[in-house]
Amino acid sequence: MRKIFFISIILLSFYSCNKNVRKTDLNENKIVKIKINRFDSALILLDTTRLDVSIKELSSQFPDFKNIFFSDILDFNPVDSIGIQKAIKTYLSDTAFSKVNKDVVLQFRNNEDIESEISDAFSVFFHYYPQKKLPKIYFFVSGFNRSIYFNENIIAVGVDMYLGNNYPKYQEITYKYLTYTMQRKFVSVDVVSTLLFSNFPFDGKKDRLLDHMLYRAKELYFLSELMNEREKTDILGYTPEQWQWCEKYEKNIWASMVENKDLFSTDMQLIGKYLNDAPFTEPVAQESPGRLGAWVGLRIIDAFMKNNPKVTIPELMQLNDYQYLLQESDYKP
């Protein structure tokens, strides 16, 4: 009896600390199966010889997305059928975009791997938050207009923005430092990240850099748990070399933030320099990658969760006393 009791205590202790759920832990009836709605290929393959009929068929095939695409992405009145027909015909006949659209069809002709990864992540998210509604996922082509669109019901991906970081056209439309995440492998990361962003808006009690970087880091930590087979570099959108630079100079980065009292700054311009996409993090060093605030924040949250093994993911996401999170992390690079 003593042996059974001792084993029971061990098991109870193990399960109380084993807080991070994997898809393999879930019952089959709790598994989410995501099917991507391919508005992109349907639009690309429209019959332009009978465009009025083709657009009606497109609308009936994608009733949830058609008005969003016409109004929010094309910036047309969805009832302006003549204007929409002209815009779509011009877009589909444009030689530059015809090449891009062919590349979209080729790159995304099979998306089972993306569907599987999103399904796994959504299944674990649904385990933690069964009361939350999961969005439908759409692919669309944006004419290099946007990579992600979302509302409470939909997450839509402009797949022409994920054709590869060395895709020739990207050099003409954006900065080099932004192209690394314009790869197919980041589609699922951006979808799951958008799910978290839309469900957990900023909750800080103060508008300090500390609050913003740890709020963002909580979502990155949760994202890394939902997509646990991904490297942390992918979660943050860093190259391996950028991550190695951060690890090498971690002490210096933290010392700079502390000495300059940047952590407690409410200057939104300074906060943006630490958290927004940029070729480097200006307050730290020109050799640094951008968004160092998010990287340091993730290190702090990692330390907090290791020091507080009984804290669950939902409990972490509810914590918005960021001074407390820093203190209890005992972060000392």
Beta-strand percentage range: under 5%
Q: Write down the oligomeric state.
A: single chain
Q: How many structural domains in the coordinates?
A: 2
Number of strands: 4
Using the CA coordinates, give the radius of gyration: 23 Å
Count of DSSP H/I helices: 17
Run of helices and strands: HEHHHHHHEEEHHHHHHHHHH
Note the main sheet. 4 strands, mixed
Q: What structural class do the secondary elements suggest? A: mainly alpha
- Average pLDDT: 91
* Low-pLDDT residue spans: 1-18
Overall 3D form? globular
Identify the strand order in the major beta sheet.
1-2-4-3
- Kindly state the percentage of residues in helix: 40-55%
Distance between the termini: 46 Å
Could you give the topology of this structure?
Layout: H1 2-17, E1 37-38, H2 39-44, H3 51-61, H4 66-73, H5 81-93, H6 95-107, H7 112-128, E2 136-140, E3 148-150, E4 154-158, H8 170-173, H9 187-199, H10 209-226, H11 232-236, H12 240-248, H13 250-259, H14 268-275, H15 292-307, H16 313-318, H17 322-329
Helix pairs in contact: 7-9, 9-10, 10-15, 10-17, 15-17
Describe this structure as you would to a colleague.
The chain has 333 residues and is mostly helical. Helix content is 54%, strand content 5%. It contains 17 helices and four strands. It has helices at residues 2-17, 39-44, 51-61, 66-73, 81-93, 95-107, 112-128, 170-173, 187-199, 209-226, 232-236, 240-248, 250-259, 268-275, 292-307, 313-318, 322-329, and strands at 37-38, 136-140, 148-150, 154-158. It has a four-stranded mixed β-sheet. A hairpin with a 3-residue loop joins strand 3 and strand 4. Helix 10 (209-226) packs across helix 15 and helix 15 (292-307) crosses helix 17 (322-329). The longest helix has 18 residues, at 209-226.
